[in-house]
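Quick start: what a row looks like.
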Amino acid sequence: MYINSLLQQFRAKGWRPLFYYDAPRLRGQEQFDYVVTKQLLPLDGEMDLSPHNWQRIDWIASPYWMFYADNVFAQIEFRRSPTWEDPKQLGTGLLTIDFQSMESYLREDIPEKDRANWRAFWPAKAKWYRERRDSAEIRLHKEGKHIDLHYQDPPLPPPPPGQRNPELPPEVTRPAHPLIKSSARVPLQRDALPLGTTCHTGESCPQSGIWHAQFPPHSISNRLPGYDVQRFFAQGSLLPPLPVHYPRLLGRWLGYPAQVEPVRWILMAYQ
């Protein structure tokens, strides 16, 4: 999936996934399950999007991801037309990447009359954001969700000449609200087996995810346009062979079996 490849490239170049200042710091599948019901929050840039999760997205609001690096924010967004899933009509998709300096982004978050000296007003704004985040994280923590206490909001950008960055109150800079005693970090997909891991028919699946079938060079499937197989397998399940040739109508009526071949399975996405 191209978007997963793009997210991986951003991470490889040093871009770090960004949470909104008032958003709870969930990770992985827990974060996706939370965001998919909110519509206005970005998805976790550290988690590749599986085909199953892709189908769960509410397309009333387009999915997007936020990253930051070197005092710059990046937003990756994908929009698609209402005819995207209609096989009888042309479907279109639009992928956009927008960059904005952190200075500009935070200044726009302050009332216009105060933007010339927005840093002086940021501590109160950051405290308001943190109260909203704490409220959500306390509720989610009680539900058994895991909060990523390792994540901290990016530091403020360097001030221009004649200004200085303000000191933020302790309740803004602390790792978590005192009611959240501890919370194990959800293992991220980058800690799992690397994408591209290969296995073969008959072997036990070593990683839950979406696996792509690669047929032997001599297989008839390689001569069938558009014959491409991707399936989800849970860790520990047996990787199967695949049918590559079905009998014609008379053969099916007579009970002739389909021709199957062992294949090479390649890990393409995490679940």
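That is the whole record. Strands lie at 16-17, 64-69, 72-80, 93-101, 198-200, 209-214, 230-233, 242-245, 259-261, 264-270. The chain has seven helices and ten strands.
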